[in-house]
Amino acid sequence: MKKFAIALHGGAGTLLKENMTSSQEKAYKETLSGALQKGFDILEKKGSAINAVQEAVMHMENSSLFNAGKGSVFSASGTHEMEAAIMEGKKRKAGSVALLTGIKNPIALARDVMEKSPHVFMIGQGALDFAQSLGYGLEKPDYFYDELRYKQWQEIKDSSKFQLDHSATKNSKFGTVGAVACDGFGNLAAATSTGGMTNKISGRLGDSSVPGAGNYAHNKTCAVSCTGSGEYFLRGVVAYDVACLMEMKNKRLKEAAEEVIHHRILEIGGDGGLIAVDAQGNITLPFNTEGMYRAYQTSTGEKLIAIYKD
């Protein structure tokens, strides 16, 4: 087997050590560690990259700490509109879902769209009908209720404002989750899931569920999962931009990812970060914010779990 590796993120933003208690920091790191272990165990047993990223993301979706699945923020109508995408690098198959309510693990449904339908993207009621045809149950609204998320919404409810979960005015919970992996056979995969923005208008989509913008995988280049200001990541086609710089400009993974995050996305006003891995198991985790929940592990013994910039 070749070198294998997995990396994951739980959102980027104004993450400052002075704004977090030791118990909060411990909880975040434990959840990141649990997700990392779920994915790495699969790779270690010669499992696929696509299975590894799905399991890692599902672990984070099942936690109220991150803005995805159980921890999703409130929309303007007081609901939880989730989105997710998954992609494999060998044949570049992808599955995406958006405007979901009641689905415990959106990333699992995205995987089913990829493998059990002829489509790439399904949204709203159509996606829910597809889920129910496969036997998915719908969680009640109280499953997704979180007191801190609710308070965030109450601060700007009935206004035209919306709140990025990683913005400078927040110091409690931050964002989108994602994972990328390279398995022992050189296959790549990426998965991303989010609850969007607090008080967002119904129907708004970010980059997380859009292949090429917030999520991308191609065995010839890399697998990428993004987190940040979605509108800018959509406009910058950020995930594909990294892969394109590698393919068209012959840049290495780290160089390409840093060019996109520290220059190209900043030029149009975007902030955030990404995680990426190539087919040799190299990993990079650039971000242009104060911090990013992030972790990685490789078959050669490298391991990291971190939150802050330094």
Automatic annotation (TrEMBL):
Entries under Gene3D superfamilies matching the protein: (Glycosyl)asparaginase
CDD domains referenced in this protein's UniProt entry, alphabetically: Asparaginase_2
Entry protein name: Isoaspartyl peptidase/L-asparaginase
Organism listed in the record: Mesonia profundi
